Amino acid sequence: MASLAPPPHPRPSLISYPQIKKTSAIRATLALSNSVPGGTPLTWALKDKTNLPSDWRKSSLEGSDWENLESDLNHWTRSLRPVQWYPGHIAKSEKELKEQLKLMDVVIEVRDARIPLATSHPQMDSWLGSRKKILVLNREDMISTADRNAWATFFARQGIKVVFANGQLGMGTMRLGRLAKSLAATVNIKRRAKGLLPRPVRAGIVGYPNVGKSSLINRLLKRRMCPAAARPGVTRELKWVRFGKDLELLDSPGILPMRISDQAAAIKLAICDDIGERSYDVADVAGILVQMLTRLPEAGSESLRKRYRIDLDDQCGRVFIEKLALQLFNGDANQAAFRILNDFRKGRFGWLALERPPK
């Protein structure tokens, strides 16, 4: 599968630092692992690594088996501090949203194309009932064509109408508007039969924080009507906006479950910046991201070596972060972790999905 990574940029600051010896990095890990405020180190990374399956190293080098990767991800998260984020405005917004959903003709659920399952609210279908739904996989530019096709096939088999979109550039937004109107066309047919005047179609846009709901609306309207920013929790109130004469859109704050029981999914939310920063330890999350990258054939260990000029001898994410911290940030593991997460979010390792459809 070809990588869609942008051309590499020169990084003289990385080249100018001497290579850190493995023994020094491990000593630093032992010294610093307990110094990260509020964090729990990846304890298996050093002392429990002998308990990993015997084929772990082999599978990480030969390619990615998505089912095995999910199993390992669950294993990696067991010893970490649970990721939970439920700001006060979400509870209020959830209550208001449930009331507004009763008025909807069609609901547009927006998910992150990199993690469509992790950004699926477990109660959404029960809230919607029999209402017509359109699924939008936003940030389609951040995954490969093969990943896009795999998800399109998966949802088509379930009879779910999917629109792939890029809310930043406006790709897919016009198709989304046309599809919403067509699905709700029966509303005015029924109204005319009752002798009532036609009215605009009402479409609610729902989804997790920071998946791009407000950006999609702004692109549809071709003007900035809803606040949008590259961080979760910007939209805090429900807001109706009119799209032409035929469509009314409801922008809603990101809605999360009160408790996230699937911690593997929660880690993916953190990696993709779809959950508040205060909910997780950045070094733990970046360490898991490193281990995931080594398992994805589109990235692999080589993408990390090329970018940071650091060997990944032991396939351990936390050790890699400590090496990077010593090399670039005077031993600050948090800064090193932020660098890795931001590089992933900006596509510096290529545009990568962190999920594939289940079989």
From TrEMBL:
The keyword Nucleotide-binding applies. Pfam families: MMR_HSR1 (PF01926). The keyword Nucleotide-binding applies. Keywords: GTP-binding, Nucleotide-binding. Residues 203-257 form the G domain. GO terms for biological process: mitochondrial translation. PANTHER family: DAR GTPASE 3, CHLOROPLASTIC, MITOCHONDRIAL RIBOSOME-ASSOCIATED GTPASE 1. This is G domain-containing protein. It comes from Zingiber officinale.
